[in-house]
Amino acid sequence: MAVIIDGKKIAQETRAEIAAQVAEQKNQGFTPGLAVIIVGENPASQVYVRNKHKACGEAGMYSEVIALPEATTEEELLSVIARLNDDTKIDGILVQLPLPKHINETQVLNAIRPDKDVDAFHPVNTGKIMIGNPDFLPCTPAGVMVMLKKSGIDVTGKHCVVVGRSNIVGKPMAMLLLAANGTVTVCHSKTQNLAEVTRSADILVVAIGRADFITGDMIKEGAVVIDVGMNRRADGKLTGDVEFASCAEKASYITPVPGGVGPMTITMLLQNTLTAAALHHKQ
């Protein structure tokens, strides 16, 4: 039976370390600041934004939430970002996705100054990740790497299979595993004989947004299984992309949903804001 990787516990430990570093920065005369912009009334987005604001407060950071109505134009949103780009109290800017359909997401994300892009979505930051010289790491993949490290799982030389190729998780996850000396295969909807590939994985990271898609017969004995998925079943319960019961029988380590990767995402956002503040106040 697999060891369950407790994301909540690792997140708490990491946040305590971050809070200590925030206290040090305050002693040096500055406080890391994060601005989160939300456009519209998406209930899930509102929950995420509240959680981010609360986490900042607990870590001792300055936090601003800018809630804009659904009808906000792209120009209005870009002018808010321009103001925050110039605001010395703000080290990190995050625009909560998804945005209303009339707003061009790419234009908006590219308007955030790269040194304040704590989601690491700007082409400058994705390029730095690609060449192995990042300022910031994308929050969810970075959280996965911390979980592996704190669980004593060495990536070096392991065959790492990533299922999913999104810009937010799949692609950067592959880059971080590669940077940690893993041998990486990326799978997606067009991959042939998917189960054959996933069964070859020493470390399997699943991020496709399909409930219980990976089953026990698709993993090898002793694999490390990281479930990034977050799906809601018909009965309202949360489940991941991995069918937990059958995979836990065979895996050596596995993350649960909820309580696995989820708590780490906001934790790494705090880490990126801390890093941005240090960059901005470098003597």
Please give a structural write-up.
The structure is a single chain. The protein is α/β, with parallel strands linked by helices and 283 residues long. The protein folds into two domains: 29-114, Leucine Dehydrogenase, chain A, domain 1 (Rossmann fold, 3-Layer(aba) Sandwich); 139-262, Rossmann fold (3-Layer(aba) Sandwich). Helix content is 42%, strand content 16%. It has ten helices and eleven strands. Strands 1-11-8-7-5-6 form a six-stranded parallel β-sheet, sandwiched between helices. It has a three-stranded parallel β-sheet with strand order 3-2-4, sandwiched between helices. Strands 9-10 form a two-stranded antiparallel sheet. The relative contact order is 0.17. The model has no long low-confidence stretch (mean pLDDT 96).
Strand order, sheet with most strands: 1-11-8-7-5-6
Briefly note the CATH topology name of the largest domain.
Rossmann fold
Shape: globular
**Weakly predicted, low-confidence segments:** none
How many distinct domains? 2
- DSSP helical segment count: 10
Beta percentage is 15-25%
Main pleated-sheet profile: 6 strands, parallel
Order of SSEs: EHEHEHEHHHEHEHEEEEHEH
Please report the distance between the alpha carbons of the first and last residues. Answer: 51 Å
Can you tag this structure with a few keywords?
globular, Rossmann fold, 283 residues, alpha/beta
Summarize the structure.
The chain has helices spanning 7-27, 43-59, 74-85, 105-111, 123-130, 139-150, 170-179, 194-198, 244-250, 262-280, and strands spanning 3-4, 33-39, 62-68, 92-95, 159-163, 183-187, 203-206, 224-227, 231-232, 238-239, 253-254.
